[in-house]
Amino acid sequence: MASACSNKKEVRAAKTSVYDIDFAVVYSGALQATRELYANIDDNPGSGKIQTAWHQVQYANNSDDLSNQRVVAAGQGYNPNATVSPGAAAAGMPTRLAYKRYFVRFDITVAGGRPWRVKVIGHAAEWDPGNAMPTELKGMARPPWLDGRIEALQVAIYRKIKPYAIRAKEPEVVDKQPELDLPKTDPTAFKGVPPAAARALAAIKDALALRDPAALRAQLADDVLWSLGGAPGADTAMAMWQADAESLEAMQRVIAGGCAESEKKVACPPGPPVAGAWQLVIEQRADGYKVTSFVRAE
Predict the structure, then answer these.
(1) Element (H, E) at 204
(2) Is 259 exposed, middle or buried (0-12, 13-18, 19+ CB in 10 A)?
(3) Mean pLDDT of the chain
(4) How many CA atoms does the CB half-sphere of 21 hold within 13 Å?
(5) Which of 72, 186, 273, 292 has the most CB atoms less than 10 A away?
(6) pLDDT, tens digit, 9 for 90 and up, residues 41-51
(7) What is the CATH code of the structural domain delimited by 187-296?
């Protein structure tokens, strides 16, 4: 009981503390604590931001934290004592290797001025067998285990820089839906293209910046060309691009480099394809402008 009270006190302290020390000390502590829990990260000291990649949620010894593989499997229809017929297996009935999987990532920001505040925002996603990529869980779909993982990271950071912690004079306003406050690209920034195409390019740029695969998938035509030698298809395209981070970085670069309309198509960069270079093409479809091609020319 005392341990539980102690943990609650530490969580409360982590949430209400600011740090009266140089920025470099606070940022370094946050970076070290985050890396110890989530090894794959991007950091930008200039903006005070740290972003983790998506990490699969590992099973622990707490059933609320997806701990028990039997519980998780049973919740998805798997009964280890039942016999799955070949016909049922072929029809996609759950098996030991076909559970739903969950992922988590974090945005950490060292903000303000001295004393510094450390903000931690968590994101969760789920992957269903048969899907090409995970889907981020927002709003009512937000899983109950996410808050516990956010608090664990907050406490880990707090422990690294606890000697410099002081109680904040004003409590932090907690944003329950931080994605609503994220910056959005202004479509008017894209000159020389139809307004509807500009809105599509802005949405694509935001999806790439926010690392939101579901939002990016929504901008693709179902028959998008992703390789000069591969069969067209949006789900295959997403799987291949996510497996090769350089391709999505290239998509960001070509959009930032400028786009232009020609023959009812919008190309980034404008003009004919250049050997060895990436080019993005969007075209008008029944439901708006969609990405119809993103390939490296040969």
Answers:
(1) helix 195-209
(2) buried
(3) 80
(4) 16
(5) 292
(6) 999 988 899 99
(7) 3.10.450
